[in-house]
Amino acid sequence: MELLAPAGSWEAFIAAIENGADAVYLGGQNFSARQSAANFDDKEMNQAVEYAHLRKKKVYVTVNTLVDRREFSAALDFIFRLREMGVDGVIVQDLGLMDAISATLPDFRVHASTQMTIHNAAGAAFLFSRGVRRVVLARELSAADLRAIRAALPEGELEVFVHGALCYSYSGQCLFSSLVGGRSGNRGRCAQPCRLPYQLWAGSGAKGKEVSLPSAGKHLLSPADLCLLEYLDILQESGVDSLKIEGRMKRPEYVAVVTRSYRQALNSLVAGKQANPAAAVKDLLKVFNRNFSAGYFLPDRGQFLSTNRPNNRGVFLGRIIHQTGDGWAKIKLADELNLGDGLEVWVSRGKGPAFSVQEIKQEEKALTHALAGEEVDIFIHGRVSPGDRVFKTHDEELLGGVAGKTRDSQLWVDARVEIKEGEPLHLCLCDAEGNLVQADGQVKAVIARERPLNKTVLREKMARMGDTPFRLRDLELQAAEGLLVPFSDINATRRRATEKLLRTRLAPFSYPEIEPAEYEQRKSTYQEGCLRERRSQAKPILSIAVSGLPQARAALRSGIGRLLFALEGIGEKQRADFDEIKEIMDTAAEKQVEVIPLLPRIQKPGEMEEWDFLGQLTDQVMVANLGALQWALNKGFKPYGDYSLNIFNPYTWDFLNRNGLSGACLSPELNYTQLKGFGPRGGLEMIIHGELILMVSEYCILGGLLHPEKDACPGFCRQQDYFLKDERGYSFPVATDPCCRFYLFNSRTLCLMEELDKILTLGLESLRIEARRFTPHQVEETVKVYRQALTTLTSAKEAPLHSLRERLENISPSPFSRYHFHRGVL
Q: Could you read off the pLDDT of 330-340 as tens digits, one per residue?
């Protein structure tokens, strides 16, 4: 299995390579999902690729954000430059960009980012069949899920995260930072609202008194860190190809320690030796942790959240015994302590002191080191109390020990020099890999009048390998005594030989040359084909997405044009069955209303086939993940795409349209200007009203916080309504589905009523109301108000949009917002 390490800076890159990574992933200055990292400019990128390739390591570059239409050409140009540099592949989220690479640079390796939310075999198969070489699977998959995907797909590379931060939501499906703070995780600028404090509340104004529920901590959406070091044998049995460490925002020392720990464990696994994972995990805890968990890899998720604190908690060092008035505190140690260690004291109220240890005393004797079980005195700025816990957040001994492994290593070469009178010097260089190059001098050797060339002088000249990565190890000289060659000729010959050796080592990583003009022609042809204008809709259909039968019946009574019947069953005790869906479709047929079943956004291995019966009821479905699209195509359905497919530019829509989609809902992160950039074309839908899902998660905090025991959950979600409240007082409704998946909704309802006149100029086929949590009354009234507005506007009359908005406000579950319609996202 490949060990893939992160690098957000040059120092971290060196740390990854020198501590045993087989490959490193890093980002450029743009189009990267970690825009806050230092990242690499083109010059640094080129240097990194050369450094890695000379050591037979690989470099993958993250271009894993959604790309705006105006950025698309620049993003593709950047990828062309990466290919010219010899980058081993790019990690991509945007489906349009993925398709463009396949069309313009077909030999360039593409990896599908975890931001594509690939969590089933069908989704991976869809991408493999369209040129993707590797899929980075969703972090929510278990060992059994991985085995199922591998069994279904014996070919194609699978990559999984094994260490580092986890997201509460499925990656690529989180709109929390985007809709609440304007910083989109899909655009590489996540503000990490999941790490902020929240309170869980029960009840609502409509159903009675609101009650705050106790929990073990305030950070209710903050997962612990993933650590699968102890399960590498299971990962190997699962058929995984690459093990990925998260951490492009982390320090070089962190990258060094984590990479080294996994490399040693993998080496032991390959050698069949008994490893000591407990000692390695202890080192990992010392460099950074929010507690460790196995994430979703194992069924037991008891340590999944880190509710007490969202940042590095370190390792427990001991407890305060007492503190004197001058600041000196006595600590009973549970672990060893060294000068330079970073400590944090957890106090009962407020923020505890955090500091670096400058002095250690024991009965007035100065120490540099103390052992577990001892009592020592250290100076603490700030007040602490007896019993307060002390945590080590920086281990000076551990991190100091990796310092030598975060610097450039050298490549040793042997030289053999032949000098014969009347002939030029002949030089052979051979590296540890067996690569052999030769170079001849330009000046013939002569008998020296004085100071003939000897091995000592020759070695001094040959060792001057300058800024190359090579360092001379052995030198063999075959020459008669008394000969002389000019030093300038020796130096020039050495330079030619080292340049040859560089080219020889780098040759296996190069691509066939593509002339810039040819690339520009390919790009132009591709873009023109995708951006061709198509039919537009004169009068859009009004559609609505609902979750339950009462809502669906209300929508049909109100005269909706298209009903999207969502099958995940949010808020329902069970998912709709054959008879219930048939009832809705029969009623809709009587009213001449189109019904499209909307498949669940998440369908893990084994869950997709349960919807095969839909073929007896309809010939069309709406899909919410790429696996569902592949399933729909295999079953002969006419598929539409939900907004969870993240269609952010016309290129993505054109790709999906060419690959089976008849229509699709555009990303709610698009603003009006970006929506206009799609041009007049049919099949497209946008959301104009309703509550949007901010997060979808495999972890239900209702069960995890209210019922942490291992027996069956009593079904809190069926008993009353719940919501999360942040420190500013905003309330975010939560819901679950029959699979116990957890959904977090926005605290504000989208309402674009007063923008309808602008929206109608876009030529969209459908305008959607998102009503999965609406009551039947809210569904019926909302549809009626929008029908009135659209009827008036499409008959060339002036509609009272402001007063219609006020009618909607009277029934809305929360205050209104226009979301990104004007502001857009960063």
A: 999 999 999 99
